[in-house]
Write a structure and sequence with these properties.
heterodimer; A: alpha/beta; Rossmann fold; 2 domains; six-stranded mixed sheet; 17 helices; 20 strands; globular; B: mainly alpha; ABC transporter involved in vitamin B12 uptake, BtuC
């Protein structure tokens, strides 16, 4: 067997009496791409923080390059070549690429004065290691997420990294960028660097990694070669539940469409978009990043009012110039970024649920009817199975899946007849994803017209009875979800 | 007894901040009463404090409204002075020395309404330039502070305005039943109204939500511009109320009265648990914070050896201490939340 870089044995860790990790083992060999999978709250992040020395485990030991540590410090971990690339990337947006790459290095060498030519030299050298082209003088805030990530990776390489841990690196990347990242990962592997790839996206895990370790509820579930797993097993080990992919069936299309869009255009975003949505339907709109899908969604909800074109709801022409107009016309919108656009993170779950529907909770004198409000909150928490001990807890205390249910509950409280969802399951784990899809199907059955805007191919394939493909701002195709394969759909999106 | 204890614990858990402030208030009260037993815990002292705090107390509530939406309203004192000056000018112009009491009372009513309207207008102006032109609150109100004060200086030519009807200050300094001062009643009315507005109306809840995350509030169908304008307008009305109290207390109006109140009200807000980045804070917390500072300053006045000169020093230290304290207690509650979250996800 090749050299062992990391050996974590019997790691246990509790926070305030709650067991986050229990007897967890993890072994990583030199030059191995290892996937650490598990749902939110399964203990992945805790384990990473123990490996990097941020947390001290209650029990167990960490062995790095053959050296045993019972109290590993962050400095020791870095000295042993462990580098973590967090989701937020920990970069300085206001500094240039070169500064971001080289400054840590300069600091750790305790230099008091900055030598700019050396900074440049270091940065050039780091970037060349992963072979990507970038303007070193560009400010990092102007880069795409993928480029920022590459900056973080090249910075990590400066510290003689032997093990790079990537925490959900693909969350904000497009397919193309993911492919580019994977190429770089393979390249690093060739240089003998091990990668611990933290993810819960099945297809990516299978594509990139050689070994898989799955955690559930803070315990090892299974560890093994990728070849020994298939999709269903992977989902089962992660969640402890079995899922069946079924197509969404839609029958009994009524004569009159719920929503009819005619020749809708918005400069530099989309052009001449026309489609219909019938009650009880789940319509998918898919396209690559920058295809205009996002802007179209925001136009329908009044965030980016269209320049020209007509919108009819139940046959009547309507004007949607603002979010208030959209809500008046019974349109709900689950935004793409739930953290910044969908939720008020530090506010209570209850307030988050009722905020868009607060008008209906007023008594005669314009005061809020507390009983009615509490009933409504309780009803939605139950209906959506939001796992929380109290509606008073801030939303930020919930897991991603539960947070997304709060956003859904908020819009359903307004009793919409049209619900637009922009990336409804981004960053949501498998179990919750499945549940959210079931909720959406239930809503369609109640006669709500649902629009899912997403680039998650299986999501639109299985859950939408019709799929519109948007490319360069125009609707190029319309296909029934049941009659197309994932590959065909990908080709249509790319225009191949 | 047991039931009461139970409730107290519940209350302490639910509203940690208010509970902490009340403990602090009791501690300050106990300290001052022990050090100056012959003067501090006496009715006279309380009556005198009840005359003193309402004017900056009402301003503190106005400041709180702007802090709640993540802003800061530096123009409150400017608005207070401008409305007081206009009310005073109006009274002086229309009420001769020998006017009959009924007419004087009527004109006082008119002057009050005019002052409140001016306050509302100035506040709405603030809200308008902030929401319409996207000027950061602190800059917008810094500008409007100069503007309002400037108008006041032009109107008064920089001089003090005196000669308002005697009846006005008599009414404003009266005490109901000989013990409850009118300013205290005015403060109470303002506090109760704003408390109701914030907690019992959709405006209040939307305001807290917008203060937490303006993007999400836009996505939730809240009209941020109207919310901002309304919030600053209420702040403007409260500022005018404070101006009217000052007018009664000093029997005069001037363009630069009470300028030290601006930062003092920010201090009260932060001490009272208002989050300066928006979204959290209650009238109850602010009220207790006002009382704490009033107890402290009245208490210090009872020590001839402690000079007035060190008052700022003490208040500044108090503010910094409170913020450091809040930092640690927030950190602790964040930790508690994380363990709660872990507990919940591992159990489900």
């Amino acid at each position: 067997m090749a050299d062992v870089i990391l050996k974590a044995k019997n790691i246990s860790k509790a926070f305030a009496g709650v067991q986050a990790l229990k007897n967890v083992d993890l072994t990583i060999h030199k030059g191995e791409i290892h996937c650490l999978a598990g749902e939110n709250g399964s203990g992945k992040s805790t384990l990473i923080k123990i490996i990097s020395g941020v947390y001290v485990p209650d029990e167990g030991e960490i062995e790095l390059n053959g050296k045993k540590y019972s109290r590993l410090t962050p400095m020791e971990s870095i000295e042993q070549g462990v580098q973590i690339i967090y989701q937020d990337l920990s970069i300085f947006p206001n500094l240039t690429v070169a500064e971001n790459i080289a400054l840590n290095h300069e600091l750790s060498n305790k230099r008091k004065l900055v030598n700019w030519s050396r900074v440049r030299e270091i940065a050039e050298q780091a970037v060349s290691k992963i072979d990507f082209e970038i303007d070193l003088d560009e400010r990092v805030e102007n880069l795409s997420v993928a480029e920022k990530q590459l900056v973080a990776i090249s910075r990590a390489l400066l510290h003689n990294a032997r093990l790079i841990i990537m925490d959900e690196p693909t969350t904000a990347l497009t397919k193309k960028e993911v492919a580019a990242l994977f190429k770089i990962i393979k390249n690093l592997q060739k240089q003998g660097i091990s990668i611990l790839f933290v993810s819960h996206k099945i297809d990516e895990v299978f594509e990139i990694s050689e070994k898989i370790t799955i955690l559930r509820n803070g315990q090892n579930v299974i560890s093994g070669e990728v070849a020994d797993f298939d999709n269903d097993q992977f989902a089962y080990y992660m969640t402890g539940r079995k899922f069946k992919d079924t197509y969404f069936e839609f029958e009994g299309r009524q004569e009159e469409p719920l929503l009819k869009v005619e020749n809708l255009s918005l400069e530099n975003s989309f052009e001449d978009v026309s489609f219909e949505l019938y009650p009880g339907e789940i319509l998918g709109i898919t396209g690559l990043l920058g295809s205009g899908r996002n802007e179209l969604a925001q136009s329908l909800f009044g965030l980016l009012p269209a320049d020209s074109g007509k919108i009819y709801i139940k046959g009547k022409p309507v004007k949607i110039r603002s979010v208030q107009d959209a809500i008046k016309n019974k349109i709900g919108y689950v935004p793409e970024d739930r953290l910044t656009e969908g939720l008020f993170m530090p506010q209570s779950i209850g307030r988050n649920i009722i905020i868009s529907n607060i008008k209906s909770l007023l008594s005669k004198f314009g005061f809020i009817n507390k009983d009615k409000m509490e009933d409504e909150i309780e009803e939605f928490i139950n209906q959506f199975n939001i796992a929380t001990p109290s509606a008073e807890l801030p939303v930020q205390a919930l897991s991603g899946g539960n947070q997304q249910r709060v956003v859904l509950a908020k819009w359903l409280a307004t009793q919409p007849s049209i619900l637009i969802l922009n990336g409804p399951t981004v960053g949501v784990d498998i179990g919750s994803k499945y549940d959210i899809h079931q909720i959406l199907r239930g809503l369609a059955e109640q006669g709500i017209g649902v629009i899912i805007i997403s680039d998650d191919i299986p999501e639109v394939l299985y859950n939408c009875n019709r799929i519109l493909i948007i490319r360069e701002g125009r609707i190029t195709d319309e296909v029934p979800g049941k009659e197309i394969t994932a590959e065909e759909l990908t080709n249509l999106m790319a225009g191949a | 007894m047991k039931l009461n204890q139970f409730k107290l614990i519940n209350f302490a858990n639910r509203d940690n901040n208010l509970f902490r402030l009340i403990i602090m208030l009791i501690a300050v009260f106990a300290l001052m009463s022990t050090l100056r037993p012959s003067i501090f815990p006496k009715l006279d002292n309380f009556t005198s404090m009840a005359y003193q705090f309402p004017e900056y107390g009402v301003l503190a509530i106005a400041m709180m409204l702007s802090l709640l939406i993540g802003g800061v309203d530096l123009s409150i004192v400017g608005i207070a002075n401008l409305s007081a000056i206009l009310a005073a000018k109006l009274l002086i112009k229309f009420v001769p020395y020998d006017a009959d009491p009924g007419y004087t009372l009527l004109m006082i009513g008119v002057a009050i309404i005019v002052a409140l309207a001016i306050g509302a207008l100035c506040g709405a102006f603030n809200g308008f330039i902030i929401s319409k032109f996207g000027i950061p609150d602190i800059l917008a109100t810094l500008g409007s502070m100069q503007l309002f004060t400037g108008i006041a200086i032009v109107i008064t030519k920089g001089r003090i305005v005196v000669g308002i009807p005697y009846m006005y200050s008599e009414l404003g300094n009266a005490a109901i039943g000989g013990i409850i001062p009118v300013p205290l009643i005015i403060y109470t009315i303002c506090a109760v109204l704003i408390g109701l507005l914030l907690n019992k109306t959709s405006f209040g809840i939307k305001l807290y939500m917008m203060g937490t995350n303006p993007t999400a509030s836009r996505f939730s169908g809240i009209n941020n511009a109207i919310m901002t304008i309304r919030s600053y307008m209420y702040g403007g009305i409260l500022s005018a109320v404070a101006g009217l109290i000052m007018l009664a207390r000093t029997n005069s109006a001037k363009a630069d009265f009470g300028s030290s109140y601006i930062l003092q009200t920010v201090l009260i807000g932060v001490l009272g648990g208002v989050n300066p980045s928006g979204g959290f804070g209650t009238v109850g917390g602010v009220t207790v914070a006002i009382l704490i500072l009033q107890f402290l300053s009245s208490g210090f006045n009872m020590f001839p050896s402690i000079s007035n000169l060190i008052k700022d020093l003490i208040w500044g230290s108090a503010l910094i201490l409170v913020m450091v304290f809040n930092y640690y207690s927030n950190k602790r509650s964040e930790k508690a939340q994380i363990s709660k979250r872990i507990a919940e996800t591992t159990n489900s």
